[in-house]
UniProtKB/TrEMBL annotation:
<keyword id="KW-0547">Nucleotide-binding</keyword>
<feature type="binding site">
    <location>
        <begin position="23"/>
        <end position="33"/>
    </location>
    <ligand>
        <name>ATP</name>
    </ligand>
</feature>
<protein>
    <recommendedName>
        <fullName>7-cyano-7-deazaguanine synthase</fullName>
        <ecNumber>6.3.4.20</ecNumber>
    </recommendedName>
</protein>
<comment type="pathway">
    <text>Purine metabolism; 7-cyano-7-deazaguanine biosynthesis.</text>
</comment>
<dbReference type="GO" id="GO:0005524">
    <property type="term" value="F:ATP binding"/>
</dbReference>
<feature type="binding site">
    <location>
        <position position="215"/>
    </location>
    <ligand>
        <name>Zn(2+)</name>
    </ligand>
</feature>
<comment type="similarity">
    <text>Belongs to the QueC family.</text>
</comment>
<keyword id="KW-0436">Ligase</keyword>
<dbReference type="GO" id="GO:0008270">
    <property type="term" value="F:zinc ion binding"/>
</dbReference>
<feature type="region of interest" description="Disordered">
    <location>
        <begin position="237"/>
        <end position="256"/>
    </location>
</feature>
<feature type="binding site">
    <location>
        <position position="218"/>
    </location>
    <ligand>
        <name>Zn(2+)</name>
    </ligand>
</feature>
<dbReference type="InterPro" id="IPR014729">
    <property type="entry name" value="Rossmann-like_a/b/a_fold"/>
</dbReference>
<dbReference type="GO" id="GO:0016879">
    <property type="term" value="F:ligase activity, forming carbon-nitrogen bonds"/>
</dbReference>
<keyword id="KW-0671">Queuosine biosynthesis</keyword>
<dbReference type="InterPro" id="IPR018317">
    <property type="entry name" value="QueC"/>
</dbReference>
<dbReference type="Pfam" id="PF06508">
    <property type="entry name" value="QueC"/>
</dbReference>
<feature type="binding site">
    <location>
        <position position="212"/>
    </location>
    <ligand>
        <name>Zn(2+)</name>
    </ligand>
</feature>
């Protein structure tokens, strides 16, 4: 079981095509950013401070952007917490720790979040002349979220075609979700191959300075790291490794 690999993608020259990357600071978005660079794009990172209780992820986003050599990184505030509706934005609500049942939308779903985020990414892409928007959306671990599924991405791509100047001209930015059908273990392996600084990413939904190790996001991440042969990266804050729930009990149904 080896240590974390470090094959950081080389920054692209200024004449490479541009891609906006939604960079939350989590493992998935960091991997999507590294994939954009590997695919030959000059990335423009966009992070959102939306009132999330785990805004520690924004610090991680800054570290990741520097590590990947991203020259342009915008962080903007869009307060989705002011009207509630999610345990991710309301610290009075309890975070789920037992996975998501079939046909159930988890309390961590934030109403309209991805729609707002991708709309802002589309605006940035059009203004900066970017030809792609890279997203860390994953439908396997978060299949309970309606805005993390392929049909949602297809619908937003169609919207981009008719709602923007570049779309009407026939070249709207392409939405790229390279991880959408990957398992969490596959994402870890891809991150390792791309040189993502996994230890610097932040997945915990809790509001603390250290990962809680017990929320669904921590448990899925830790189990995947363990199964991918990276035990040194497991948070192990909330429970002994022997008590971690097997991934099969945490994974949600895949989406075709």
């Amino acid at each position: 079981m080896g240590g974390e690999q470090s094959q950081t993608p080389e920054p692209k020259p200024q004449n490479c095509p541009k891609a906006v990357v939604l960079l939350s600071g989590g493992l998935d978005s960091a991997t999507a950013a590294a994939q954009a660079i590997a695919d030959g794009y000059q990335p423009i990172a966009l992070s959102l401070d939306y009132g999330q209780r785990h805004n520690r992820e924004l610090q991680a986003a800054q570290v990741i952007a520097r590590h990947l050599g991203i020259q342009q990184h915008y962080t903007i505030a869009v307060n989705l917490a002011q009207w509630g509706g999610s345990s991710l934005t309301d610290p009075r609500q309890t975070l789920p720790q037992d996975g998501v049942q079939d046909n159930q939308i988890p309390s961590t779903y934030v109403p309209g979040r991805n729609t707002v985020f991708i709309a802002l990414a589309l605006a940035l892409a059009e203004a900066q002349g970017a030809v792609a928007i890279y997203l860390g959306i994953n439908a396997v671990d978060y299949s309970g979220y309606p805005d993390c599924r392929p049909p949602y991405l297809e619908a937003f791509q169609a919207l981009a075609q008719v709602s923007s100047k570049v779309g009407l001209e026939g070249h709207a930015p392409q939405l790229v979700a390279p991880l959408v059908l990957d398992s969490k273990v596959d994402i870890v392996r891809r991150a390792l191959a791309l040189g993502v600084p996994i230890a610097e990413t932040w997945s915990c939904y809790g509001g603390g300075e250290e990962p809680c190790g017990t929320c669904d996001s921590c448990r899925i991440r830790d189990r995947a790291l363990w199964d991918a042969g990276q035990p040194q990266l497991v948070s192990n804050q909330g429970r002994p490794l022997g008590q971690m729930v097997p991934l099969g009990e945490l994974d949600h149904p895949s989406v075709s």
